[in-house]
Amino acid sequence: MTGADGSHAGAVAVPDWLVQQDVALCPCGCVGRRRKASFLTRTIRGGSGILQQVLFGEDVAAAPGLLQRIDPRTKIVSLLALLVVAGLAHSMITLAALYALTLGLAAASAMPLGFFVRRVWLFVPIFTGIVVLPATLSVVTPGHVVLTLWHWHGVAEGVTTQGLLAAARVVCRVAASISLVVLLTLTTPWVRLLAALRGLGVPRIVVLIVGMAYRFVFLLLGSVTDMFQARQARTPGTPRHDGTARAFVGAGVGALLGKSAQLSEEVHHAMLARGYRGDATTLERHRLRAADLGYAAAVVVVAATLIWGDHVLVPR
Amino acid sequence: MSHADPTSHADPTPDPQELLVCRHLSYAYLERHPALDDVSLTVRRGERVALLGANGCGKSTLLKVLDGLVFPDAGSYTAFGAPVTEDSLEDEQMSRGFRSRVGFVFQNSDAQVFSPTVREEIAFGPLQLGLSRDETAGRVDDVLHMLGIPDLADRAPFQLSGGQKKKVAIATVLVMSPEVLLFDEPTAALDPRTRYWLVELIERLGTAGRTIVHATHDLDLLHRIADRCVVFSEDHRIVADGTPEEILRDRRLLVEVNLVHPAAAAVG
C-alpha cells in the first residue's frame, strides 16, 4: 500500500527532528577558537604517513642502483660484518669513515641523500638520548669539566670533555649502525629480504609468520585510520583531550583485537583452502653471481681496513 | 522447481556425476547461533549453482563446509565420492587431492591476499600442492596475463584497489585449475566494469565445463552466472531449488526469503 506522499505502509518511522529542514546543531561558522591536534590525532596521522613511506621505500628498492643489484643474502651477511666493525671501533675517525661509507653506498644506490639522512637521524635520538645524556656528566664520566652545572663539596660538577667524547662516539656508532640497516631495508624488496632470511637458514615458519605479520600491520593500520576518520567525521570542532578520547582508544583497541582475531581465522582458512599444511614453500630462488662475491670481498676488505685503522688510531 | 525436499537427492549408489553431496547438514556457530539447519544439496559435474538468500541465512557457511573448512555438527558431506571430515582431511593424500580439486574465492579478498607480493600470492597454492617452481612460475605468468594483471605481479597487496584484489584472489584459485570453484558473493562491492568482467569469466569457466557454486543475492545477473538456483530461507533451510527463470518468476518466494522487498515485487 502506498501513502499519499509515496511512502509505503509499514515503512521506517522517522522522528520529526530528522525530517525538519533546519541546519545542524550549530548553524554558525568559525568561532575563532582553535585547538592543536591531540596526541592521538597526531599518532594516527603518523600511521598513515608510514604507509606512504613504505610505498616510497618500495620505489627505492626497485630503482637501478648498486645495492639493488646485490643478492639479499650477501647484503645481510655484509651488513652483519659492518655492524661488527661499528661495534668494535673506538676511534671517531673510524666511525665517521664508516658513516661516510654508508652515505656513499646510499648515493650509489640511487637513494635521495636528504631522505636517507633524515630517516637515520630520526631514530638516533630515540636510541641514544636516554643513554648518552647521563654519560656526559662528571658523576658518570669523570674528567675536565667544560660546563659547570653544580658544586659538590666545593668541586665543580657538570659536563666533561671525556663525557662529551664518549657520547659523540655512541651517537656516531648508532648512526652508522642504523644507516647500514636502513640501507639494507630500503634497497631490498620485503619479499626478497624474507627469502634471503630463509636462504640463510632462518626457520621457514618464522619467515612465514614475519611475512604475515607485516601484511597484518597494514590491514590493521587501515582499520585504525578508518575508525579514527569515522569518529572524526562525527566530531564537530576539534576533538577534546578528555575521557572520551581515552574511551575511544580503549574501545578501538578492543574492536581491533576482535577484527584481528576474525581476520586471522579467515586468513588461515584461505591458506588451508589452497593446500597449506604447515610448511610453506616460496617461489623465489636466488643464485650467487660474480658481482655478489665481488661485493662481499670488497666489504671484507673495507671491514678489515677499518678495524686495522682503528687499532692504529687508538692503540690498546 | 522443487520446493524444499531435503531428501530429494538421496541415492544409495554413488554417481560419478555427483561431485559434492551434502545430506541433512546442520551447523551452529559457538553451538548456539544456527547457520545451517537440515540442509541437503547435491552438486553435479558442470553445474553452475547459485546459493540465494538474505544476509546471514547460511550461504557462506555452506560454502565453507563444501570447502572442508568448517565441519557440520550433524549430517554428512562427501566430495568426489569420499567423505570430507576433519579426520579424513588429516590424511595427506586426501587433503592434497581435495584441495587441488576444489577452489574457494573468499568474499573478503584481504583474507586471501596475504603474501608480500601478488606473484608470491598466486604461487602459494600450486607450491603447497607440490608443483615445481618452474611450472608454478609458468602458471602464474599465464594466469596474470589471462586476467590482464601482469603489471600487478610485483606489487604489494596493500597497494591494490578492491577490484584488483578481487582479481588477484580469483587468480590465486584459478592457478590451481580446480574442478570445482566456490565463490562467496563474487560481485559484491565491485564497480560495474569489474562486475561484468567477473560475470564473463564465470560464463567462460562454465562453458569450459567447470563446476561452479556461488553464494549471492545479486539477482540481476543470475541468468548469466547460474543454471540452477538453491534458495535459503532466513531460518537457514533450503526452501527451493530450480532454474533462474523459475526462481525469479516466483515473487512470493523471493519476498518470503527476503531477496526482494514487497514494494519491488509489486512493481515487478
**Uncertain regions spanning at least 5 consecutive residues of chain A:** 1-9
CATH class label of the largest domain in chain B: Alpha Beta
- Could you please say which CATH topology of the largest domain in chain B applies here? Rossmann fold
The helix-strand sequence of chain A is HHHHHEEHHHHH
Major protein interface: A-B, 34 and 42 residues
Uncertain ranges of chain B: 5-11
Strand tally of chain B is 10
Instruction: Return Rg of chain B in Å.
Output: 19 Å
Helicity of chain B, as a percent range: 25-40%
Instruction: Note the main sheet of chain B.
Output: 6 strands, mixed
- State the separation between the terminal residues of chain A, measured CA to CA: 98 Å
Oligomer: heterodimer
Mean pLDDT of chain B: 88
Q: Give the DSSP E fraction of chain B (strand runs of 2 or more residues).
A: 15-25%
Q: What class do helices, strands and sheet pairing of chain B give?
A: alpha/beta
Family (chain B): Belongs to the ABC transporter superfamily.
Keywords (chain B): ATP-binding, Cell membrane, Hydrolase, Membrane, Nucleotide-binding, Translocase, Transport
Domain ABC transporter (chain B): 20-260
Subcellular location (chain B): Cell membrane
Describe what you observe in this structure.
The complex is a heterodimer of chains A (316) and B (268). With 316 residues, chain A is mostly helical. Helix content of chain A is 66%, strand content 4%. Chain A contains 10 helices and 2 strands. In chain A, strands 1-2 form a two-stranded antiparallel sheet. In chain A, a hairpin with a 2-residue loop joins strand 1 (145-152) and strand 2 (155-160). In chain A, helix 2 (39-62) crosses helix 8 (204-233), helix 3 (72-88) runs antiparallel to helix 6 and helix 5 runs antiparallel to helix 6 (161-187). The termini of chain A are far apart. Mean pLDDT of chain A is 79; it is low at 1-9. Chain B has 2 domains: 18-101 and 182-262, 3-Layer(aba) Sandwich (Rossmann fold); 112-177, no CATH class. Chain B contains 11 helices and 10 strands. In chain B, strand 7, helix 7 and strand 8 (211-216) form a beta-alpha-beta unit. In chain B, helix 4 packs across helix 5 (133-146) and helix 4 runs parallel beside helix 6 (162-174). With 268 residues, chain B is of the alpha/beta class. The longest helix of chain B is centred in the C-terminal third of the chain and has 16 residues, at 192-207. The interface between A and B is large, with 34 and 42 residues. Chain B: Belongs to the ABC transporter superfamily. Chain B: Residues 20-260 form the ABC transporter domain. Chain B: GO terms for molecular function: ATP binding; ATP hydrolysis activity; ATPase-coupled transmembrane transporter activity. Chain B: InterPro entries: AAA+_ATPase (IPR003593), ABC_transporter-like_ATP-bd (IPR003439), ABC_transporter-like_CS (IPR017871), ABC_transpr_CbiO/EcfA_su (IPR015856), ECF_ABC_transporter_ATP-bd (IPR050095), P-loop_NTPase (IPR027417).
